[in-house]
Specification:
The chain has 417 residues and is α/β, with parallel strands linked by helices. It is built from 15 helices and 13 strands. The protein has a seven-stranded parallel β-sheet, sandwiched between helices. It has a six-stranded parallel β-sheet with strand order 10-9-8-11-12-13, with helices on both faces. β11 (312-315), α11 and β12 (332-334) form a beta-alpha-beta unit. The longest helix is centred in the middle third of the chain and has 26 residues, at 156-181. It is globular, with a radius of gyration of 21 Å.
Amino acid sequence: MRVLLMAYGSRGDVEPMVGLAAQLRARGTEVRMCAPPDFAELLDRAGIPLAPIGAPVRPVVTGAVTGTAPMPAQGLPQRAAAMVATTYEAVAAAAGGCDAIVATGLFPAAAGARSVAEGLGIPYAFVAYFPTYLPSPHHRPFERPGRPFPPDVTDNRALWDLDVENMNVLFGTGLNAHRESVGLPPVDDFRRYVLTDRPLLASDPVLSPWPRPAELDVVQTGAWFRPDEGTLPAELEAFLDAGTPPVYVGFGSIPMRDAEDVARAAIEAVRAQDRRVLVSGGWADLSLIDDRDDCFSVGEVNHHALFPRVAAVVHHGGAGTTTTAARAGAPQVVVAQMADQPYWAGRVADLGIGAAHDGPTPVFESLSTALKTALAPETRARAGALAGEIRTDGAAVAARLLLDWAGGGDRAGAPVS
């Protein structure tokens, strides 16, 4: 059997798919992946053939956050239409001989992937990494760019109905134009077409439960973890062994405006708590502010091995980082920037396993306040207790379901029959 995985977005979209790929391959399934070329090295290390989609996303994301990107010549509907076409082309070229397609990330890219599956007559599944990406009466949808919700509409169901209209306007027209060009019929409901009636939810049911009742038949598998990549670098091991557990500061594949000021505020706030500091560069390009021996700079490291050995994790609130820190029992400070990150910040605060930073711009005073909460003994105790409840078999559960769907064992319950 052969499965094609498609993930268009940041590293947080790609890494869980690597975990799923490992579980599929352990069951004798051949796996390919379509993703932005930024992640070629990651996928090469994992032994997963990559069919790249378009140009790298990091320069685009960095420019948008820092204000250095030129103003796009096209509006969002035109850019979405181009993404549909680019993804369709990459997925169609890679999907030959495949028995199923699993997609995640930006909606227009997923729509292109599903169109390929439809044309080939093979099952397609969509996966979300957090509950609020999926329609539910228990939470609001995201506002789409240029399409604010009317201030007098507060009912969640009504807002999700408006979201259907907004997505049809922003994304559906471009999708249908492309579908006509490849001989496929038009789609009336863009969002439902992408999600299907039975999407997968790859998040932990304790850390981020799917609230019921809801209209969608969501299948929550648990979070998908990338396989453990082994030991930490010798220099990092030496730093960890040389003193008390440090505070980790890193924002993954999220750039930060004024990164030098952010690094200085974070390091000084951690030092004010009499803690050592680990600074991860990431897409924010954070760096050390001096040569004192209480700070250490790290590149890409195995978070599963590192986080159990730190005093706290200061991060952006991506699904993967939040779940890995929770699994490690490490208290967290979430400095949410966009998308799902405010959701994860709220969950961390509500569960008492850390603090939601006040706003997206970290300064010394605000980080100091959040760190005091995260470093309190009672927070460490709650984080440690929750760690034992985090499921670790989510990718294995998903692999079994997908192989049943693709192989016909559970076709009645498949996202696409």
